[in-house]
Design brief:
By secondary structure, the protein is of the alpha/beta class. The chain has one domain: TIM Barrel, CATH 3.20.20.70. Helix content is 32%, strand content 12%. The protein is built from 12 helices and 10 strands. Helix 2 runs parallel beside helix 4. It is globular, with a radius of gyration of 21 Å. The N and C termini lie far apart (68 Å).
Length: 355
């Protein structure tokens, strides 16, 4: 466990070594006095030159088969983030490293354009933000997400975006243009309406009321926007489900969705540590509910079950969502994205068609 004074503004309390490392790091007090106070953990950003940026999946419980991640790691630092274990592939910790040691991919727009021009490429909606948030704080400086959007706009390629970041409003000019052609839709995640709880769980994410303002701005600009009540955390945020949906509807969301809390691999011990630190009085109750939905385990990776859970409690949440979404008019699917407009733009030196 790292001292609180060096991890201000971070959700994880530890930085356990990657599950792929043969050696493990462990802090040890050798008794020598420490004369200098430890430094606060700062965000470090390195760069990566990707060979490809479109990642394909065959997961039957996902509504997309390809995605893009402009960044690896996420400074938002959501303690429950199911993407944390992906940092282990890089030899980094899913704990504090995931929040503080980020990897930017500045060549992603150029590589993306090349992949879209490939003769074998078959167009289908690309999802962005399904792993790490493209509008985390460093996007303001780096602008990689905006550059990727410019490529998609120029190619007239459909895209679905998921984010918690208010930085998406900086790209409202591109998004509104694409929306007029049915090429974009956006999902905004609102986990809780409790500002204090959000600050503890999602330390560098805009406050809940700010995210509702983002929904309003997108809707006013004609961008189809979905409220995502995700993740629902049993015995912690589940009582807010209807209130979150109503707030999203009032802000202008046209549809809604939900996902249950997921705790794969290293996420589970990180989340349990967070509960013990911030909510010790209800930690056992939360985890008991989680295990109740996953056959006594912290997580069940099976398709379908991983997103919703199983059992009486999971069914109650699902029925509550269905009833509230129907009552609020949020039970409609977002409009299908158009794929028929896809057309790679001409490049300098390209031979133009005669007809």
């Amino acid at each position: 466990m790292h001292p609180p004074e060096i991890r201000r503004g971070r959700a994880a309390a530890s930085n356990a070594t990657s599950r792929y490392d043969r050696l493990k790091r462990e802090a040890f007090d050798d008794g020598w006095p420490v004369e200098e106070a430890p430094d606060v953990l700062r965000t470090e950003v390195t760069e990566e030159v990707p060979r490809s940026v479109i990642t394909y999946n065959r997961s039957p419980d996902l509504p997309f088969d390809r995605s893009i991640n402009p960044y690896r790691g996420c400074e938002h630092g959501c303690i429950y983030c199911f993407a944390r274990p992906t940092h282990a592939y890089l030899g980094l910790s899913p704990g504090l490293d995931f929040e503080t040691r980020l990897i930017a991919r500045p060549e992603a727009p150029k590589v993306l354009a090349g992949e879209l021009r490939a003769k074998r490429y078959a167009v289908a909606p690309i999802a962005i933000g399904t792993n790490t948030d493209p509008y985390q704080p460093i996007e303001k400086e780096r602008g990689i997400m905006r550059a990727c959007l410019e490529v998609l706009r120029d190619f007239r390629h459909p895209v679905a975006i998921v984010t918690k970041g208010s930085g998406i409003l900086r790209d409202l000019d591109i998004l509104s243009e694409m929306a007029r052609d049915g090429l974009v839709r956006v999902g905004i995640s609102v986990t809780t309406l409790d500002r204090d709880l959000a600050r503890k769980m999602e330390p560098r994410v805009p406050a809940p009321e700010k995210r509702l303002q983002v929904i309003a701005a997108l809707a006013q600009a004609g961008v189809p926007v979905r409220l995502m009540a995700s993740p629902m955390i049993p015995a912690l945020t589940d009582h807010e489900l209807e209130a979150i949906l109503e707030a999203g509807r009032d802000a202008g969301a046209g549809s809604a969705s939900w996902i249950m809390l997921r705790l794969p691999l290293e996420v589970s011990p990180l989340f349990r540590d967070w509960l013990a630190q911030h909510l010790p009085d209800r930690a056992a109750r939360v985890m008991n509910r989680v295990r109740e939905m996953h056959g006594g385990k912290d997580y069940d990776p099976r398709w379908q079950a991983r997103m919703r859970g199983e059992g009486p409690y999971a069914r109650i949440i699902a029925r509550r969502f269905e009833a509230a979404a129907r009552r609020l008019g949020l039970d409609q699917a977002q409009p299908a994205l158009r794929c028929d407009l896809f057309a790679p733009p001409a490049r300098v030196g390209d031979q133009l068609a005669l007809f």
